[in-house]
């Protein structure tokens, strides 16, 4: 396992001040999570490559881009060009997930696969040679601030076992409903990266250090 990392989801940041929000959270987190939504694959619309590109020069932290769009292949190169370091896709977003992952890797980005709460881990097995990250959704994708689905904990454990049986470095990321209460459950189940939106971006920028520390304090006593 790698040391635990925190990815701050901008979906819960102030969209009128995204640049300032990145600067405010940057000292306390390991990467920035950017949720791209199309109003079709998920019932919400967020932002796309133009916004990612506008934010890119503000930080040297990795951009961890979670694509909730269908179709998805057409946007991969634009998202990579905008400055993504990790690009994560849902297998339901297109007919050929293996090809989509190859397309991501051809752009020199890490390739991630996201599993919805209703998606089985079986889909991962043939993809293990080409994936760099597995994202487990612990809410239904589309919105921040939803309640954590503890039905997904066993899936996280099963994926941890699956990854540990490979000889590849594959990161295990968990996204949705992460808080100081749920973080220890997810870490115990085997997560490497916690995505957190509403748990970090609340109370104003003066609170971000404390909000992230709250997640890490719980984590450090594991
Ligand atoms: C939801 C997104 C998440 C979201 C998490 O579809 O993928 O990244 O921002 O928000 P919280 O941490 O508030 O559950
Ligand atoms: Zn996300």
List the helices and strands and how they pair.
Layout: E1 5-9, H1 18-25, E2 31-37, H2 49-56, E3 63-68, H3 73-82, E4 86-89, H4 97-106, E5 110-115, E6 133-137, H5 153-164, E7 171-175, H6 183-189, E8 193-196, H7 208-220
Parallel strand pairs: 1-2, 1-8, 2-3, 3-4, 4-5, 5-6, 6-7, 7-8
Helix pairs in contact: 2-3
The protein binds D-xylitol-5-phosphate and zinc ion.
D-xylitol-5-phosphate binds at residues 9, 11-12, 33, 35, 66, 139, 141-146, 175-178, 195-199.
Mean pLDDT: 96
In angstroms, what is the radius of gyration? 16 Å
CATH architecture: Alpha-Beta Barrel
For the largest beta-sheet, the strand count, sense and barrel status come to: 8 strands, parallel, barrel
3D shape: globular
Structural class: alpha/beta
CATH topology: TIM Barrel
Q: Tell me the helix content.
A: 25-40%
In what range is the share of β-strand residues?
A: 15-25%
For the termini, the CA-CA separation is 14 Å
- The run of helices and strands is EHEHEHEHEEHEHEH
In total, how many domains does the architecture comprise? Answer: 1
Number of strands: 8
Characterise the protein shown here.
The protein has 7 helices and 8 strands; from the N terminus they run βαβαβαβαββαβαβα. By secondary structure, it is an alpha/beta fold. α4 links the parallel β4 (86-89) and β5. The chain has helices spanning 18-25, 49-56, 73-82, 97-106, 153-164, 183-189, 208-220; strands at 5-9, 31-37, 63-68, 86-89, 110-115, 133-137, 171-175, 193-196. Bound molecules: D-xylitol-5-phosphate and zinc ion (ZN). Zinc ion (ZN) binds at residues 9, 33, 35, 66, 175, 195.
């Amino acid at each position: 396992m790698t040391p635990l990392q925190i990815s701050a989801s901008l979906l819960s940041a102030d969209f009128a001040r995204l640049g300032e929000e990145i600067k405010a959270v940057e000292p306390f987190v390991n990467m920035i999570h950017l949720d791209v939504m199309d109003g079709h694959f998920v019932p919400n619309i967020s932002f796309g490559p133009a916004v990612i590109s506008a934010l890119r020069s503000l930080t040297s932290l990795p951009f961890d881009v979670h694509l909730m769009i269908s179709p998805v292949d057409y946007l991969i190169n634009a998202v990579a060009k905008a400055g993504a370091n990790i690009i994560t896709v849902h297998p339901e977003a297109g007919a050929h997930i293996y090809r989509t992952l190859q397309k991501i890797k051809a752009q020199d980005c890490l390739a991630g696969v996201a599993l919805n709460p209703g998606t089985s881990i079986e889909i991962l097995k043939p993809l293990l040679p080409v994936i760099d990250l597995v994202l487990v959704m612990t809410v239904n994708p589309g919105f921040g601030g939803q309640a954590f689905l503890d039905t997904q904990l066993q899936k996280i454990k099963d994926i941890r076992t699956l990854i540990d049986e490979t000889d590849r470095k594959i990161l295990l990321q968990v996204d949705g409903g992460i808080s100081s209460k749920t973080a220890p459950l997810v870490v115990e189940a085997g997560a490497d990266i916690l995505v957190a939106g509403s748990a970090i971006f609340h109370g104003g920028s003066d609170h971000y250090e404390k909000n992230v520390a709250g997640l890490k304090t719980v984590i450090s006593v594991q």
